[in-house]
Amino acid sequence: MALKSGLAIREIAHSEASEHEIENVQRAVQDYVERARAENHHAICFLTGVPGSGKTLVGLSLAHSGENKTHAIHFMSGNGPL
Fold it and tell me: Which 3 state secondary structure label does DSSP give 43?
Protein backbone atom coordinates (compact mmCIF):
# COMPACT_ATOMS: atom_id res chain seq x y z
CA MET A 1 0.00 0.00 0.00
CA ALA A 2 2.91 2.32 0.75
CA LEU A 3 4.30 1.84 -2.75
CA LYS A 4 0.97 2.66 -4.35
CA SER A 5 0.67 5.83 -2.27
CA GLY A 6 4.05 7.00 -3.59
CA LEU A 7 6.03 6.72 -0.37
CA ALA A 8 9.72 5.97 -0.78
CA ILE A 9 10.68 2.71 0.87
CA ARG A 10 14.46 2.82 1.14
CA GLU A 11 14.98 -0.91 1.62
CA ILE A 12 13.01 -1.72 -1.53
CA ALA A 13 13.96 1.26 -3.67
CA HIS A 14 17.70 0.83 -3.04
CA SER A 15 19.39 -1.20 -5.74
CA GLU A 16 22.96 -1.81 -6.84
CA ALA A 17 21.74 -1.95 -10.45
CA SER A 18 21.46 1.25 -12.44
CA GLU A 19 18.05 2.67 -13.29
CA HIS A 20 18.80 1.90 -16.95
CA GLU A 21 19.47 -1.79 -16.19
CA ILE A 22 16.29 -2.10 -14.15
CA GLU A 23 14.25 -0.46 -16.93
CA ASN A 24 15.75 -2.91 -19.47
CA VAL A 25 14.77 -5.90 -17.34
CA GLN A 26 11.27 -4.51 -16.74
CA ARG A 27 10.80 -3.96 -20.48
CA ALA A 28 12.05 -7.48 -21.33
CA VAL A 29 9.65 -9.12 -18.85
CA GLN A 30 6.75 -6.86 -19.91
CA ASP A 31 7.39 -7.75 -23.58
CA TYR A 32 7.28 -11.44 -22.67
CA VAL A 33 4.03 -10.97 -20.74
CA GLU A 34 2.44 -9.08 -23.64
CA ARG A 35 3.51 -11.80 -26.08
CA ALA A 36 1.97 -14.49 -23.86
CA ARG A 37 -1.26 -12.49 -23.64
CA ALA A 38 -1.39 -12.02 -27.42
CA GLU A 39 -0.83 -15.74 -28.00
CA ASN A 40 -3.24 -16.70 -25.19
CA HIS A 41 -0.53 -18.54 -23.25
CA HIS A 42 0.43 -18.59 -19.62
CA ALA A 43 3.91 -17.37 -18.74
CA ILE A 44 6.11 -17.56 -15.70
CA CYS A 45 9.28 -15.55 -15.27
CA PHE A 46 11.91 -16.21 -12.65
CA LEU A 47 14.15 -13.26 -11.92
CA THR A 48 17.34 -14.14 -10.10
CA GLY A 49 20.25 -12.11 -8.85
CA VAL A 50 22.37 -11.20 -5.89
CA PRO A 51 20.83 -9.30 -2.96
CA GLY A 52 20.37 -5.67 -3.89
CA SER A 53 20.31 -6.29 -7.64
CA GLY A 54 16.78 -4.91 -8.02
CA LYS A 55 14.67 -8.08 -8.31
CA THR A 56 11.99 -6.89 -5.87
CA LEU A 57 11.95 -3.42 -7.43
CA VAL A 58 11.39 -4.91 -10.90
CA GLY A 59 8.64 -7.25 -9.67
CA LEU A 60 6.76 -4.61 -7.73
CA SER A 61 7.09 -2.08 -10.55
CA LEU A 62 5.61 -4.56 -13.02
CA ALA A 63 2.83 -5.64 -10.66
CA HIS A 64 1.76 -2.02 -10.10
CA SER A 65 2.35 -0.64 -13.60
CA GLY A 66 -0.42 0.92 -15.63
CA GLU A 67 0.19 -1.61 -18.39
CA ASN A 68 -0.92 -4.43 -16.09
CA LYS A 69 -4.03 -2.88 -14.51
CA THR A 70 -6.54 -4.53 -16.83
CA HIS A 71 -4.93 -7.97 -16.78
CA ALA A 72 -2.98 -8.19 -13.56
CA ILE A 73 0.29 -10.02 -13.24
CA HIS A 74 1.19 -11.80 -10.03
CA PHE A 75 4.37 -11.09 -8.09
CA MET A 76 5.56 -13.69 -5.61
CA SER A 77 8.39 -13.11 -3.18
CA GLY A 78 9.97 -14.88 -0.27
CA ASN A 79 10.12 -11.51 1.49
CA GLY A 80 7.55 -11.85 4.29
CA PRO A 81 6.45 -8.18 4.55
CA LEU A 82 5.63 -8.08 0.86
Answer: coil
